[in-house]
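Marked as duplicate of an earlier ticket. Keeping the data here for the record.
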Amino acid sequence: MCKYRFITIEGNIGAGKTTLAHLLSKSLNARLVLEEFAENPFLEKFYQNPDQYAFSVELFFMAERFKQMKNLVNQQDLFQHVTISDYLFTKCLLFAKVNLPDDEFRLYQKLFEILHQQLVQPDLLIYLHAPVQTLQENIRKRNRSFEQNIKDDYLFNIQQTYTHYIKQHNVKTLYVDASQADFLGNELHIETILDALNKEYPEGQHYLTFP
């Protein structure tokens, strides 16, 4: 039986967040909250011209994520059933830190802090860690046109920002080595995650590898 009511899955671009979220929600009969990235009208423009569209893309993402997460606060069954989300609201701040110049980031951070304190925080974060080469392979396979020119350095910066945040804030995290993960093709990998969710973890990072 799952020990956690609200579980968030995070990781770099192409790490397998949404795939794992779908599979866990099915196994746990959990409510599923997915990021609606395709609704962001600035996303493709950002990849084409990041300097011009970075603030717009990040502000839109934050507004949409807040709207989704705010709904969880207003729904009482959050405290009766398991909820699985494929993003952490703090993702807003982490991507903004990488993408925005300092002055815009300071403004963005002020807005983020106002919104963040109104939201329910997850009981457990599942962080999928994979090397940049694996991420690039996954990005090519899913074949979203606007992602195909993402640079290795960008993925590495995102990775470093995530891991620094998790360690600095001592977030209760199941830190999963996803370098060889095959959630769709290998049932044992899903079972390993499900078994881990039956355990109570203290604050901090707890590392999980697949047999």
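See parent ticket for discussion. The mean pLDDT is 93.
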